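note to self: the first set is below, dont mix up w the second
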Amino acid sequence: MKQYIADGMLLVTAIVWGSGFVLTAIALEYLTAYQVMAGRFLLAAIILTILFGYRLKKASKSVIWKGILLGTILYIAFALQTVGLQYTTPSKNAFLTAVNVIIVPLIAFAVYKRRIDGYEIIGSIMAIVGISFLSLQGSLTMNIGDALSLACAVAFAFDIFCTNLFVQKEDAIALTIIQFITAAFLGVLVVVCQGDIPTTLEKEAIYSIVYLAIFSTTLAYLFQNVANQYTSATKAAIILSTESFFGMVLSVIFLHEVLTSRMVVGAVLILLAILIAEVKPAHPKKRMMKSSR
């Protein structure tokens, strides 16, 4: 039951992240990408510290360094995605970033040296094909932006894998607080070094940052880190890949993006990928053997 609750939490995270596309698009009309990143992480760190700061009193050294590592990986992933977007199209950036669905089981295989779950691999491949239908358009040529987007996928894959690994022994909430404090520190440091501190803020920008901080950052990553205690890293990556599906749906509703047949095919493939990874349908003969026992 805990596993199903965890998977539900990851699905909620994917929905919230999907909505984040809409709010980020609004925020970027008034702020730079680095200002948005600094704002969402700083506010999220403050919120989590106020709510759960007492957990840091018992934080061990291992929780601290693991949280700092997760925060650094998280910020690097967002930075690579942002810079890569300056040199490639949003659709290719989204697709290449989503390659983390395939990278996560490969990292798990390299670290643990154990057989990869066949259904999770099939689900990962179907999910990435589905995401390609949702996101990839135009030329498939590789440029510096594409390379940075692939590096971003690797960073996000390590974030999912390391989170899944660390929360097995550490306090997930304490890890999340330190992760956000680290990401916020790096975000503010970059903005200050760029000399790009905003002097005025429009209402739309404030509302967007508040939503991204509370829901897309605080709630979503809290859910992700807690849920990772009860599910595999590969399954988590597959469920989180539905972010593209929900982003598509909400973009159609709020940003009036045109819904195409490719987008529908991609959505169906992603949903099937989740079902395969979740249900793991047994071979008919195996089912008969189990039922006869």
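second set (the one i keep forgetting abt)
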Amino acid sequence: MTHEAAGVPTSRNDDARQGDALQDEQPGSPADAHAEGPAGAAEGGTGGSGDAGAPSDDGALGQARPEARLAHAVRVAEQALIEFEIAVETFRVEVENFSRLHHQRLGPMYARLDELDAQIAEARAARTGDPEDLRKAQEARAIVMPMPGVDELFHDWIDSEGLSPEAAAMLTEQPVRPPKRVRPTDEARKLYRELARKAHPDLAQDEKERARRDEFITRVNAAYGRGDEALLKELAQEWAAGPVVPEAELGEADELYARLNWLTQRKELLTVLAQELEQSAIGAMLRMAPDDPDHLLEEIAEQLLGEVSQRETELAGLVQ
């Protein structure tokens, strides 16, 4: 989860109050909106100043002074933004896991198909001697062994978070722990959401507390990305045993307006990120199987095996 610390007003809500205000697995919440994607979920009220500023039906709030109503609007916007961030982060993890597992499991099949295509083209060119067939054979062989560009050389070393887990493990001599699944288990997803809601850096009261939450959430994100349910449980215990932060007093109107404005800008940035994820090639593939993205890999593998078999039969007919 990416956090923009610059320009954040100092007033924050305490995580205990935030956690009580939210219920896990709320119907229709952005965190459960895999079918429509995080960007689509953002349209339903994720912290815009207009909806967030609407007063509650509660009579006491309706009679409260303007600063109290504005403070309530900030709380609503904070809750909605955190739910949206959770939706974006869970989708980002699935996109990166799918990309990594797709490369690991299906890469050899794609390479085999390219090699068979080259052999078929070369066999056909040898049989016909046609210049056009010779040209096609050369092009097919060039695809099998291309000259790598700079991006391709570093593709397996760097991802959106910097060094990939595999690269970091090699440099630190730690064991590689690739993701086992595209989508972590339901229990891992539940643990992640609870921790993100309680420990989110945007709920920090000062920069020291924000730094503590940033470091903690970084570990939470890494554990969730690997689907490490046991580690997420350990992190939940660690957070529960941590220091209790006193509740922050929300400031007066100017500070509250600044906070609300920052929340709105943060939502806009996340919306752009969500749209980029959904419009990527892997994101588009995931939207084809929103309920079971792990099964999609199996379906693609079966399709590729069928194509390999067809190519091998075609090649056998040409070299006889």
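remember for set 2: Residues 2-35, 45-56, 147-161 have pLDDT under 50 and may be disordered.
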